[in-house]
Write a structure and sequence with these properties.
The protein is about 0% helix and about 45% strand. With about 160 residues, the protein is mainly β.
């Protein structure tokens, strides 16, 4: 997102021109295979920088790092372990869903996730690679002794929650 304002707003003499650029860690349209709105949270982790080109100048930002984060997971035990997977940025994302608010959890729809059932000592009891449904949910077989679930999405965001 780019914003601009002169200071002072009305020209009464010299003005200072202030530009602000903000990039949220979401990929640009067309950068992913099968690019859809549901894939907006799948930016690649790593180091980035801004490179701005003007008519007679260039400007490069200092490098910054995109790290894992923003994953919200719920788990419930029934005949299976039912898991909800959501991207969550309380300060908001850009458009992530046509019907949901950007600062509320947004389902990770129809995407591959790794689900690990853990015991109380964090030892892995079972591992599943599965795909969430159209509402961001998935179910996996329960394993005796599992007390937690660890979910890793396609962008390596990880969250561990207790299984009630």
């Amino acid at each position: 997102m780019i914003a601009y304002t002169p200071s002072p707003l009305q020209r009464t003499g010299p003005q200072t021109h202030i530009w602000v650029a903000e990039w949220q860690a979401v990929p640009w349209l067309g950068s992913l295979d099968g690019d859809t709105l549901d894939m907006r949270g799948n930016v690649k982790l790593g180091n980035y920088r801004f490179h701005v080109v003007g008519s007679t100048w260039t400007l490069d930002s200092s490098p910054f790092q995109v790290v894992p984060g923003g994953l919200a997971v719920t788990a419930a035990r029934a005949t299976a372990i039912n898991i909800g997977v959501r991207w969550y940025a309380p300060k908001g994302w850009r458009l992530m869903d046509m019907n949901l608010m950007s600062n509320q959890p947004v389902p990770v729809k129809s995407q591959s996730v790794k689900v690990e059932l853990l015991d109380a000592t964090n030892a892995v009891k079972a591992t599943y690679t599965t795909t969430t449904d159209a509402t961001g949910n998935v179910s996996v077989a329960d394993v005796a002794g599992s007390t937690q679930v660890r979910v890793t999405d396609a962008s390596l965001n990880v969250q561990i929650v207790a299984i009630p």
